TrEMBL record:
<dbReference type="InterPro" id="IPR027417">
    <property type="entry name" value="P-loop_NTPase"/>
</dbReference>
<dbReference type="InterPro" id="IPR041701">
    <property type="entry name" value="MetN_ABC"/>
</dbReference>
<keyword id="KW-0547">Nucleotide-binding</keyword>
<comment type="similarity">
    <text>Belongs to the ABC transporter superfamily.</text>
</comment>
<keyword id="KW-1003">Cell membrane</keyword>
<dbReference type="GO" id="GO:0005524">
    <property type="term" value="F:ATP binding"/>
</dbReference>
<dbReference type="Pfam" id="PF00005">
    <property type="entry name" value="ABC_tran"/>
</dbReference>
<keyword id="KW-0029">Amino-acid transport</keyword>
<keyword id="KW-0067">ATP-binding</keyword>
<dbReference type="GO" id="GO:0005886">
    <property type="term" value="C:plasma membrane"/>
</dbReference>
<dbReference type="GO" id="GO:0006865">
    <property type="term" value="P:amino acid transport"/>
</dbReference>
<dbReference type="GO" id="GO:0016887">
    <property type="term" value="F:ATP hydrolysis activity"/>
</dbReference>
<keyword id="KW-0472">Membrane</keyword>
<dbReference type="InterPro" id="IPR017871">
    <property type="entry name" value="ABC_transporter-like_CS"/>
</dbReference>
<keyword id="KW-0813">Transport</keyword>
<feature type="domain" description="ABC transporter">
    <location>
        <begin position="2"/>
        <end position="241"/>
    </location>
</feature>
<keyword id="KW-1278">Translocase</keyword>
Amino acid sequence: MIKLNNVQKIYDNNKQRVTALKNINLEIKSGEIYGIIGYSGAGKSTLIRLINMLENPTAGEIWVNGQRMDRLNNEKLRLARQKIGMIFQNFNLLSSRTVRQNIAFPLEIAGYPKEKIDKRVSELIKLVGLTERADAYPSELSGGQKQRVGIARALANNPEVLLSDEATSALDPKTTESILNLLWEINRKFGITIILITHEMHVIKKICHRVAVIDGGEIVEEGPVTEVFGNPKKEITKEFVKQVPVLSGND
Ligand SMILES: Nc1ncnc2c1ncn2[C@@H]1O[C@H](COP(=O)(O)OP(=O)(O)O)[C@@H](O)[C@H]1O
Ligand SMILES: [Mg+2]
């Protein structure tokens, strides 16, 4: 349902030209949790931002649910983006809005009536376990709570796809664990396709079904997590395997 064909991305500023992605071919199935792992600068954020067209490809095709994303007009792109939620390492919450108001934000933009927004926001707050903190401001929350707000906000418009760019990278191990459990539960309950970017092997190991290893703007290995990491072929993949002691499925 998500397909990238021969995708290339070159950043061309006045001073320099950076080839961030070389020739990406990728197919992500509906309902799976797909991990993309690579070191800093490998092109992970660029790749994920191409899926909701926060970046334009220099060449190639981007398909989401049968729609060619890089060919949509502004209005169609706006609607397509409502079906693609995104969460970030630094949460990107509005500091002047409470938990409830942050989660309501995308629903206000989509133009829903107040009663409908209130009902949906209450459901989401319950789903992410923030009932007691509904009227708190972001500055009053822990990192894990902030990311729960980010997740609730990303899910507000009932997306089919959730993009996660290093969403647990600013969190301690225990909080990371609880956020990954929440993403896992969301995937199972609602069948939302999750694309998760990380530089941390244990994140992939914990919740991803399939994984791509990206290095220097190219996918160097790809497949089911147990296959890729059970029998790593490239040096970089072996380095990631060394990050965790023993690999034995999704335990
Ligand atoms: N807006 C931009 N302008 C110019 N170069 C960029 C821009 N965004 C990213 N890059 C460059 O593209 C490459 C890939 O970056 P990025 O996709 O952010 O990698 P990652 O998320 O894996 O760290 C890097 O060399 C980075 O410096
Ligand atoms: Mg990045």
